[in-house]
Design goal:
Elements lengths: L30 E8 L7 E6 L16 E4 L2 E7 L2 E3 L11 E7 L5 E7 L5 E12 L7 E11 L5 E8 L10 E4 L6 E13 L1 H7 L11 E9 L1 H11 L24 E8 L1 E7 L7 H4 L6
Parallel strand pairs: 1-14
Antiparallel strand pairs: 1-2, 2-5, 3-4, 3-6, 4-5, 6-7, 8-9, 9-12, 10-11, 10-13, 13-15
Length: about 290
């Protein structure tokens, strides 16, 4: 989400708060809530509930089934263990306050409120270019560049992308503020690097496949409220955790009220643009940059 706005390796977002991990002796199980809703009616709106696990355990987090999950007057039905989904076509709107209510089968209740911030980035178009590697048998790098406008308002962003509608883990997205690039036109700025490799593909699926003619690449810029931005930075400060909360972070901020709970409830506007791959190995310098290097 940062074209000129978020210089590519902008993983230089920093946070002053240290994320600690519980030790074997003082471990406590927490409810982990992943509740990020958007304004995209074409996308499923999901809330995921799970339990944290000890740092020393290797198994997957247990999912939390049988809960009652509501956002305002909308009921989120459990589609698979621990995954609760709104009715098809549901999406959030700017300026509306949303209240999340979770009631677990064992009687614990949790609540949170969130309001969608103004969309801080207008994404007009996206294009791609080959940036490294030689054959389809070796790891290769492509770049997604964007055209658009980063608005004058102070905003925070999350950058993510998809290959044929398949996304890398959410915790691999880049988060950034706009203090260096506020209020600027963006033209062909390389915003995201797509590392394609067989190793990553085997681990995370075809979002890491080698690009071929006909593949559809999608870039997204999510506008975040400051609290959600701080939460994401704190959550990944010590290294990416996939899935979230594995292992358990002890002092990540949350806006969810209740006993022993981690996570954040957020509603975000999303700007999105797509491009279809023609020549996967189209030269980088000839296509994207508005000036020679």
């Amino acid at each position: 989400m940062k074209k000129i706005l978020i210089p590519l390796l902008l993983a230089l977002v920093s946070c002053t708060e240290k994320v600690d991990l519980q030790s074997r002796s003082d471990y406590h199980e927490y409810l982990a809530v992943e509740a990020t809703l958007t304004d995209r009616k074409e996308d499923p709106q999901r809330i995921t509930l799970s339990r944290t696990i000890s740092y020393f355990r290797q198994e997957s987090q247990p999912m939390v089934s049988g809960a009652s999950v509501r956002v305002n007057d909308i009921v989120f039905d459990e589609k698979e263990p621990g995954v609760y989904e709104a009715p098809e076509g549901y999406a959030c709107e700017e300026g509306v306050e949303y209240r999340l209510r979770i009631s677990l089968a064992e009687g614990d209740d949790y609540e949170a409120e969130a309001t969608m911030p103004e969309n801080g980035f207008r994404l007009d178009a996206v294009d791609y270019a080959f940036a490294g590697g030689k054959t389809m048998d070796s790891d290769s790098l492509w770049t997604l560049a964007v055209w658009g406008y980063e608005k004058e308002i102070e905003s925070c962003f999350l950058l993510t992308h998809a290959v044929n509608g398949l996304y890398p883990p959410f915790s691999m997205a880049i988060v950034s503020d706009d203090k260096f690039f506020n209020s600027a036109e963006v033209a062909g700025f390389p915003i995201t690097g797509l590392l394609q490799s067989e190793l990553l593909r085997k681990q995370y699926g075809d979002c890491f496949k080698y690009l071929e003619t006909g593949d559809v690449l999608t870039q997204e810029v999510w506008t975040l409220d400051k609290g959600y931005y701080d939460y994401l930075v704190a959550l990944t400060m010590g290294g990416v955790s996939i899935p979230l909360f594995t292992p358990q972070p002890a002092n990540v901020p949350t806006n969810i009220r209740g006993e022993r709970v981690l996570g954040y409830f957020a509603v975000c506007p999303v700007s999105r643009a797509s491009v279809t791959v023609e020549d996967p190995f189209r030269p980088y310098f000839k296509r994207l940059l508005p000036f020679p290097l």
